[in-house]
Amino acid sequence: MCMANKKPSRTRTNMAEDRTSMANERTFSSWMGTGLGAIGVAIGMKAVFGVFEPTWAAKAIASIFFIIAILIFYQARQQACKTVNRLRETDFEAKSGKSFMVLAVLMSIAAVGTGAILWSL
Asked: Which phi and psi angles does 43 have, rounded to 5°?
């Protein structure tokens, strides 16, 4: 077996860390999409508001979906930051967890705002 073709173990480790970082970003993005899906269901409840009595019941159910979305955003941020922190234990230069936090907070604010608009209708 020719040893010249083997990559040094450090190179393989660096590539594995890169793949882990990218997988973390994809997973975070997927969870953000799932949260947006929950918001979409809540907005879809608006169609029920007009024909369902009492309307507060439909709004309450829609609010549960907003809460679910916010919990998804929070959990996605927690898991992404946990992975980034584990990568920092090596000499990998992972990007800051602040970007995950900022996006999760903004998405949560948007969910609360959308919920407030739906309740005011």
From this structure: -65, -35
Residue 69 contacts residue 113 (beta carbons within 8 Å): no
Question: Is 3 contained in some domain?
Answer: no
Q: Is 9 part of a structural domain of the chain? A: no
Cα distance between residue 43 and residue 102, in whole Å: 24
Please answer whether residues 6 and 81 qualify as being in contact, where contact means their C-beta atoms are separated by less than 8 angstroms.
Answer: no
Q: Which two tokens stand for residue 114?
A: 């959308």
What's the average pLDDT block by block, 10 residues per block, for the chain (121 residues)?
60 78 91 96 82 84 95 95 82 74 95 92 81
The per-residue pLDDT for 39 is: 96
pTM: 0.81
Cα(67)–Cα(118) distance, rounded to whole angstroms? 14
Q: Residue 11 class from Cβ within 10 Å (0-12 exposed, 13-18 middle, 19+ buried)? A: exposed
Range of the domain at 55: 19-120
